Amino acid sequence: MFEVIDNELLAPNLHRIVVRAPRIAAARKAGQFVILRVEKGGERIPLTIGDADAVEGTITLFVQAVGATTRKLVAIPAKGHVRDMAGPLGMPTHIETWGRVACIGGGVGTAVLYPMAKALAETGNEVTTVIGGRSRDFVILAEALSAFSADTQITTEDGSLGRKGFVTSVLDELLRDPGRAPGAVFAVGPVPMMRAVAEMTRPYGIKTIVSLNPIMIDGTGMCGGCRVLIGGETKFACVDGPEFDGHLVDFDNLSDRLTTYREHECRMVMQIQVKREAA
Ligand SMILES: Cc1cc2nc3c(=O)[nH]c(=O)nc-3n(C[C@H](O)[C@H](O)[C@H](O)COP(=O)(O)OP(=O)(O)OC[C@H]3O[C@@H](n4cnc5c(N)ncnc54)[C@H](O)[C@@H]3O)c2cc1C
Ligand code: FES
User: Fold this and answer.
1) Integer Cα distance of 211 and 242 in angstroms
2) Ligand nearest to the CA of 234
C-alpha cells in the first residue's frame, strides 16, 4: 500500500497527488513512469512521475480524471492509500545540451512534458514552452512550467486563454525565425498533435522526440500491449520508450491500437455514473 500524502485540485479534473514511495523517489529519472492499481483487482494504469523528493521519499503525480480508474484515483484523500505501484518504469528522457529547445504540450500531455522540460532546463537548455488545450480548463501547469522556461506560450482552440488556435501555429513561427528556432523539439499530447509536430520539423531536420501513450498493462515488456512501430520495427513503449524519434513513429498504427478498447471504456464510465446516481 502507498500512502497519499497530499491531493490538491489544480484545475478542473486535474489533481496533483503526492504519494509516499521512497524507493521509486530515490531511483526515478525524468521521463519515467509508474503503473499503479487503485484497488485490489483494479485496472493497471501508467502515470508519469511528475516530480520526486528523494529526501522526503515522495513522488508527485499530475492526474487528469478522464475515465474509471483516474476518477477513483483522484478521489483518494490525504492519508488514503493506493493499492500497488510499480516503478520507475521506462527509459529516462535522453538529455543533451541542444541550446534552445521547444517543449510542446497538448491537454494532459503537458503533465508528461513537465518533468522532461524541467530536466532540459536544469541541464542548461533554454526552454520555450508551448502548451495548449481545447479551452482554458484544459491548459494545465502553465505556472509550474513558466518557473523554468525562458518563454511560455499558451494556445486554446476557443481563444479563452492565450492565443486562439493550435500549439503548432506557435511552433511554425519558431521554426521560421532563425533567432528563436530550436535545436530539438519535445512534444507530448494527442496523436494528431504529435504527428503534426513531427511533420513540421522533418523538413528542417530538427531532432523531434515524442512520448507515446499506447495501452500499457504490465509495463515490463512481457504482455505486448504497448507495441508500437518505430522505423518499421516493433518496439515496446514501456521498456524501449515511452519517448521515441517522432520522425520514425508510425502514427497510423498507434491511432488504430488506441481506439481498440474505446467502447469498453465508455461502458465502464457509464456503470460508475449509474452506481453513483443510485447511491
Ligand atoms: C507512459 C504514459 C504516461 C502517462 N502519464 C500520465 C500522466 O502523467 N497523467 C495523466 O493524467 N495521464 C497519463 N497517462 C494517461 C493515463 O494512463 C490514462 O489517462 C489512464 O490510463 C486512463 O484510465 P481510466 O481508466 O481513467 O480511463 P479510461 O476511460 O479507461 O481511458 C481513457 C483513455 O486513457 C487511455 N488508457 C486507458 N487505459 C490505459 C492503460 N492501461 N495504458 C495506457 N493508456 C490507457 C486510453 O487512451 C483511453 O482512451 C499516461 C499514459 C502513458 C502510456
Ligand atoms: S505494457 Fe506490456 S509489453 Fe509494454
Assistant:
1) 5
2) 2
pTM (predicted TM-score): 0.89
Residue-by-residue DSSP string for the chain: -EEEEEEEEEETTEEEEEEE-HHHHHH--TT-EEEEESSTTPPPEEEE--EEETTTTEEEEEEE--SHHHHHHHTPPTT-EESEEEEEESPPP-----SEEEEEEETTHHHHHHHHHHHHHHTT-EEEEEEEESSGGG---HHHHHTT-SEEEEEETTSSSSEES-HHHHHHHHHH-TTT--SEEEEES-HHHHHHHHHHHGGGT-EEEEE-----SSSSSSS-TTEEEETTEEEEHHHH-SEEETTTB-HHHHHHHHTTTHHHHHHHHHHHHHHHHH-
**Residue 240: band (very low, low, confident or very high) from pLDDT cuts 50, 70, 90:** very high
What is the per-residue pLDDT across 154-180, written as a single tens digit (0 to 9) for each?
A: 999 999 999 999 999 999 999 999 888
Which of 26, 180, 141 minimizes the C-alpha distance to 88?
26
Ligand 2: centre distance to CA 126 (Å): 34
C-alpha 225 – ligand 2 centre gap (Å):
5
Pairing of strands 207-211, 233-236: unpaired
